[in-house]
Amino acid sequence: MATQHDNSSVSDEKLVKAAQRGDMPAFEELVARHRDKIYARAFSMMRSEEDAVDLSQEAWVKGWQRLKQFQGDSSFVTWMTRIVINLCLDQLRKQKRQRSESIESLEEESGGVERQMPTVVINPTEGLERRELRQRIDKAMGQLSYEHRTVLILHEFEELEYKEIAKRMECSIGTVMSRLFYARRKMANLMASYKREEMS
Amino acid sequence: MNVNLWKWTRLFVVSLLAASSAVAEELKIEAKLIWGANTNKSPNPDHKPVDAKTAEMLRNVFAWQNYFEVSRTTGIVPNRGTNSFTVSKHCTVEIAELEGPKVGVLLIGKGKPQNRTIKALSRGESFVLGGDVKDGSAWFVIISQLDEKAAVANGKPAPPAAPSNSKKSEEPKVTNTASAKTTNTASK
Amino acid sequence: MNQELALKYQAFIDGELSESEARRLAQVLENDADARALVAELRNSKAMFTGNEPEVKLPESREFYWGKIQRQIECLEREPAGDATGRWRAMLAGWRRFVAPLAGVAVITFLGMVAVRFYNPEPVDYLAEIENLSEESTAYSFRSGNMFVVWTRDTEMTSDDSQVNFIDYNEAVAQ
Description:
The complex is a heterotrimer of chains A (200), B (188) and C (175). By secondary structure, chain A is mainly alpha-helical. Helix content of chain A is 72%, strand content 0%. Chain A folds into two domains: 1-99, Orthogonal Bundle (Rna Polymerase Sigma Factor, Chain: A), CATH 1.10.1740; 101-200, Winged helix-like DNA-binding domain superfamily/Winged helix DNA-binding domain (Arc Repressor Mutant, subunit A), CATH 1.10.10.10. Chain C is α+β, with helices and mostly antiparallel strands. A two-stranded antiparallel sheet of chain C has the order 2-3.
């Protein structure tokens, strides 16, 4: 059985094959390699450390259980990312039933608010270092509602088409488009306001 | 006593399996997306008029004069499994083989489930989904069960029972149905 | 600019429009400064995400994180070893009285089904169940000759962009 040290230089493909044969240390190495990415996806959707840790661990357990179904059509980390996204979407749906809607989020849903947002003419990300840009993006995304943030993540980071997003979020393509439009405009305005704050 | 018990048990199990196999089978399905209109030509030159038999069948029931084949998809629905047939960018039909034998047909339009129908699918009978298009024309998805000879005659070898889109395949729901192993033919 | 047009511009930059629609929209853009400003904003907003997903580190050590996963896996895979055999034996003892007559019934049923299948044509089952799954459309069915039809139409709740327009006759066929 390969030791932890040996597995660190083994490719993902070989580790997956070994794990499919029941090699737990191989699976542990895969977890170690990709845990940050899977956790990051869960955190970006849930915005809660506790929820993101729980859901990412649940995703890994499901990944182990379903490993034999992985056929290599995509990379292993992409496959795992999809598992954690599905778990997060299920959790968000459960939470939505319990969560009371704020007036702002209802206005967002109805699609009226973004018409009041001025068009952002100057690129608010120009001149920013990557690290600072990422921090601002994270801060701005934290100010979106769950639905708007999710559609942004699925489109911009997971590169899913409207149709796929609608299927995953169990809504119409029109709703996906409205939410994405609002989310983008809101992000542009937030990033512009951060830039104004910095300059003042 | 034990030998007799096992003999009867074996006979029972074998008979049950044989009986269940008599009603369970994989289905070879063809799904055709057709546009019905009163214009003589489709705006898309790739869309050719359907064959005379299909045109007559549709004209006998529907008001449109002309019918054009937009796409044709064939595939296997495995025994007690499901397969997806993506007939257009906006339309997917999921077909499940159910006990009976019956099929469950789920229409997904623009990414959202529209309706589900459960009925027996018989050879020689056409199952047609349809709806209006805004400009007064109409769309149809004709679902037919093929036998092996028909599948070969259509120029496609009977595909193996590889349920790539079936619910028995890998878990992630976030997959692109366009990567299905069903055979798609562009209407030329 | 109305909402529908704005969403079309978004679909344009996302590559979700057909070629002909994209060409038509590009022509409209040339003459509309407000639209160009909106498209530029959307493009900037889209571009800022590329390669800039916020980096987040897992706030737990490797061993601690893996330990919990490992315990969950082991818990799921663990089965009581002796119980399964004992349960099977008890069930088999109870079934002993019924196995022989059930075997006879199964044989007769199988022979009957074979006979029906070979000597009777497959009847067409006229019964069908239809379930509406969307508030924006409704379905009804009818039969004509050898055709069974399920027709889907908009309800009053649909917006102009009908959910049931599943065909764009200008698009290429599905791959």
